[in-house]
Design a protein that fits this description.
The protein contains 17 helices and 16 strands. By secondary structure, the chain is of the alpha/beta class. The strands form four sheets. It has a five-stranded parallel sheet, sandwiched between helices. A five-stranded parallel sheet has the order 5-13-6-7-8. The longest helix has 18 residues. Bound molecules: flavin-adenine dinucleotide and iron/sulfur cluster (SF4).
């Protein structure tokens, strides 16, 4: 990556200055029964951490945040705060809500700079737990289990820990050193994070079941599925997650300089792929989506960011065929106009229907697929777990799967009404799975959890 691109991929938003942080923290009303706490899926004691900032106790503030949320530094950058804590702040309407995300970032950034370890592992309780995957769900489960005294080993297929925080979310929103610090906090507590080890291949599921008292499956989801249309094999067709990952690993091979890029999909992955393409030098980036703005799943802040970056949106437009030239290189995307039917699908959203005869061609040098993620069926089946189309079946309270030793959390259970595919939801589920493991072994009462 050249210097220009390196600059383009640097974090976009500056944090608060000390003066701004002080002023912002002093605006907080420190509400009794604060609604912001209730709106945080991990239940961070927000007024308490804000109060600590106002008194200059930044380490104490970071401890409050990270105690409730083991990936609280990441969440300060990627959470949809306007729909969560900031959306619930009592100052909405009267003035501006407290900028909770930025204050959370201010406190955790300060903790990162000190290099301090915020928490210690509990005295060993003689039990061993394995965690599969080191994304937010896995790190949270592992951190809580370590605090309960389990000897914890995290198995991670990639070279670095952090899951999509490290390899998925674009670096200009979330630099890699943030999830690295969160993982390092666990290593300093004695959690063994074995990277480059793929469960199911390098170590078998049966071995984990035999060697550990409990297993938490937090392996997330897989790559982007095929579109199932002609032309997907052409040169210039990318998987959004692979493309973003290559930029995070500084390994993008190039090819988007001056390009006309079309991204298919309208979730957070599509937005990240589109804004990444802008930063990789694309001349024009369009997102095509078969429904409308009202149904897109990307957060509002992501949508606004994409618009600011010059990304164009083509609503009610579905891809039909990717067209290439004689050398096998993408030249066009054939699309069809859609209309929304009165009927709704299982997800409650109106079903898009093609308008007969409305096919048209859009010029493109690259097409990026961003239509969700595949499920990790071979891994789920290696543990012999019940699942519904790849969504691991769990008890919604205990996160226990159909195997009595195995618990599951995060994106691996997302779908079929289980939570959200967000970092904060994965973190909370990881915590809850750890509490259930410990409760199962008699170490925790229902009230504590
Ligand atoms: C491009 C993109 C942008 C996003 N933006 C946001 C955002 O702004 N805000 C937000 O809240 N959420 C966002 N998300 C969603 C969020 O990243 C996920 O919901 C969250 O990371 C899920 O956490 P997880 O721990 O369940 O899984 P993951 O983060 O996917 O981690 C799973 C880990 O398990 C590992 N693994 C898989 N199989 C194996 C195996 N067999 N053996 C060992 N290890 C294995 C993987 O390598 C991975 O490291 C985004 C997602 C994407 C793709
Ligand atoms: S609701 Fe707003 S004002 Fe009240 S404690 Fe939370 S952040 Fe502070």
């Amino acid at each position: 990556m050249n210097d220009m691109l390196r600059r383009n991929f640097a974090e976009v938003h500056p944090g608060l200055t000390p003066k701004e942080a002080m002023e912002e923290s002093n605006r907080c009303l420190y509400c009794y029964d604060a609604p912001c706490i209730k709106s945080c899926p991990t239940g961070i004691d927000i007024p308490s951490f804000i109060k600590k900032i106002s008194t200059g106790n930044l380490k104490g503030s970071a401890r409050v945040i990270m105690d409730a949320n083991p990936v609280g530094a990441t969440c300060s950058r990627v959470c949809p705060t306007e729909q969560l804590c900031e959306g619930a702040c009592v100052l909405n309407g009267a003035s501006q809500p407290i900028r909770i995300g930025l204050l959370q970032r201010y406190a955790t950034d300060a903790a990162m700079k000190t290099g301090d370890t915020l928490f210690a592992a509990g005295p060993r309780n003689g039990r061993k737990a394995a965690v599969v995957g080191s994304g937010p769900a896995g790190l949270s489960a592992a951190r809580e289990l370590a605090r309960f005294g389990y000897a914890v080993t995290v198995y991670e297929a990639k070279e670095k820990p952090g899951g999509l925080d490290t390899y998925g979310i674009v670096s200009f929103r979330l630099p890699q050193d943030i999830p690295m610090w969160e993982a390092d906090q666990l290593s300093k507590m004695g959690v063994a994070i074995r990277t480059g080890v793929r469960v199911g291949t390098d170590v078998h599921a049966e071995k984990l079941l035999a060697d550990y008292d409990a297993v938490v499956l937090a392996a997330g989801m897989g790559r982007v599925p095929a579109l199932g249309i002609e032309g997907e094999q052409l040169d210039g067709v990318y998987d959004a997650i692979e493309l973003i990952e290559s930029t995070k690993a500084d390994a993008f091979g190039g090819g988007l300089q001056g390009a006309r890029v079309i991204v298919i999909g309208a979730g957070n992955t599509a937005i990240d792929a589109a804004t990444c393409s802008v930063r990789l030098g694309a001349d024009n980036v369009k997102i095509v989506y078969r429904r409308t703005r009202g149904e897109m799943t990307a957060y509002d802040f992501e949508y606004r960011f994409a618009k600011e970056e010059g990304v164009e949106f083509r609503w009610l437009t579905a891809p039909k065929r990717i067209v290439g030239n004689e050398s096998g290189k993408v030249t066009h995307l054939e699309c069809v106009r859609m209309t929304l039917s009165e009927e709704t699908g299982k997800d409650g959203r109106p079903i898009p229907v093609p308008v007969a005869g409305s096919e048209f061609l859009m010029e493109a040098d690259a097409v990026i697929k961003a239509i969700g993620q595949k499920r990790l069926l071979p891994l789920i089946e290696a543990f012999g777990l019940e699942h519904e189309r790849g969504v691991v079946t769990i008890d919604p309270v205990t996160y226990r799967t159909s195997h009595p030793k195995v618990y599951a959390a995060g994106d691996v259970v997302f779908g079929q009404g289980n939570g959200e595919a967000t970092v904060v939801s994965a973190a909370q589920q990881g915590k809850l799975a750890a509490y259930s493991v410990h409760r199962h072994f008699g170490g925790i009462s229902a009230e504590t959890a």
